Amino acid sequence: MLQKLNLENLLFLDIETVPEKEYFEELDDAKQELWEQKSHYQRKEEFTAEEFYDRAGIWAEFGKIVCISVGYFKINGVENSFRVTSFYGEETQLLKDFKNLLDGHYNQAKHLLCAHNGKEFDFPYIARRMIINGISLPWKLDLFGKKPWEVPHLDTMELWKFGDYKHYTSLKLMANILGIPSPKEDIDGSMVRDVYYLEKDIDRIVTYCELDVVTTAQVFLKLRNEDLLEDHQIKKV
């Protein structure tokens, strides 16, 4: 069935997130208490709520998005090209810009969003942050009332599960086992918080995010048993 999808109707994406504040003590008292309650199961007695706060970016209620990178195929004759661009900076504006992209260019039933672990992370995180920032949801993220087969989302990790719901496979591992050349990343997800707050190097985060979008697209091609993109086919716009 994957082979029947038109690649030009897919929008691949990845997000990078950080804690909403640089330091735990910047949260007001109510939010500190709520964080303590929310994080208790994960940190148990090994860490205090403050010590665990550097991981707050993984929860939409305590984090924020600093970059959304997207990629899409253009089919010209016999060779595909893959174009990548990013929305980054102030969260409300980048979310509005992303919404405008969806509303303007990916608003038809044939259009699908694709991310690795997107159904568990990227898609709900973006939707929650839009609501928090007072932005109405684009149709592609508003799942209320939709039947499961009407949800316009693809997830490369879910596709790899083949019904094995307990199975988690990272994007990096999938790329490795499928023979996809490893991108030259100089950071990983655990470093994004420090790169953003301490180094203040958003460009480095954008590059990392875009590489993950390209890798997700490559994984999708492999799942269709198609040739991988070559470097000259990938264009930053």
Polypeptide structure, described:
With 237 residues, the chain is α/β, with parallel strands linked by helices. The chain contains seven helices and six strands; from the N terminus they run βαββαβαβααααβ. It has helices at 29-43, 91-105, 122-132, 156-161, 171-177, 192-197, 202-223, and strands spanning 10-19, 63-76, 79-88, 112-115, 153-155, 234-236. A six-stranded mixed β-sheet has the order 5-4-1-2-3-6, with helices on both faces. Strand 2 (63-76) and strand 3 (79-88) form a beta hairpin. Helix 5 (171-177) packs across helix 7. The longest helix has 22 residues, at 202-223. The protein is globular and about 60 Å long. The two termini are 30 Å apart. The relative contact order is 0.18. The mean pLDDT is 94.
What are the key terms here?
237 residues; 7 helices; 6-stranded mixed sheet; alpha/beta
